[in-house]
Amino acid sequence: MSTVATPAPRAAPLGDVARFAAALTSGDRVGAAAVLFIAFVVLVAVLAPVISPYDPVHTTSDTLAAPSLQHPFGTDQFGRDMLSRVIWGARIILLAPVVGISISTVIGVPLGLLAGYSTRWISAAIMRAMDVMLAFPGLLLVLIVVTIIGAGLVNVMIAIGISFVPVFARVVYGSTLAAKGQDYVLAAKAVGCSPLRIIAVHILPNVTTQIIVIASSAIGWAILTATTLNFLGFGVKLPTPDWGADLSAGKDWLSLAWWIATFPGLAITAMILASNYLGDQVASVFDPQSHWRDNATRVGMEEVS
User: Which domains does the chain have, with CATH numbers?
Assistant: First the structure.
């Protein structure tokens, strides 16, 4: 009597997520602390309507009040509670980099795959265009894009996305060239698979790790760029709560009310440091031997900051 073998059950997605979360919060203590801090900021941003003690845009007569039990972070020149503004500002500080990096991924990854697998002429045209974009300092490129398409939060996110496109394209291009010569790709060619199928089924899954590592590592630079643009007045406009905009507004009151600029500035610093350590932690989990910082420097990511 014959029996039919049944395939082993696959691990549940929730189990995979739990193992990944456990890996991120283990190992290096600084990296694990950075991951927990970012998770805390995300939780604060989600629960902002519940945990915010005051309306962040409501003005009162209690102007320039120093930090106290009633206002732990003090109030600004319009009597707005700074703690509430920092809490609500976490939403924008997370939204802009995530959307911007998503745009970079959607545009840069296909360009890198196409350049790495297509003919020499197409590859040269794409990569020379990426080299031209990398020739500009990252912030200058973002400012040029914002000047062309206009100011505003949405345009800032688009500008951040465009500035990171050559970084993603470069990384994926190099990974595609390495994968193209592997035996499994050559075997797929031999059995008659189309180039599109080879790219989608055989190459893309094998460069996904590099994409995830670079995306997580770019969060810190994207946050710095977004807050810089908001500080300069190209992004969020007051009274919308934003760390960069509040830092800009508070710089004129440092001698009278240091807390207006100090607490948003500390929040920005902590978030950028945590995001950079997050990139290291994700790299150590996905590919400990990748030496991603050296690779990022070679493709120009250090210049984006």
Answer: 27-56+80-304 (1.10.3720.10)
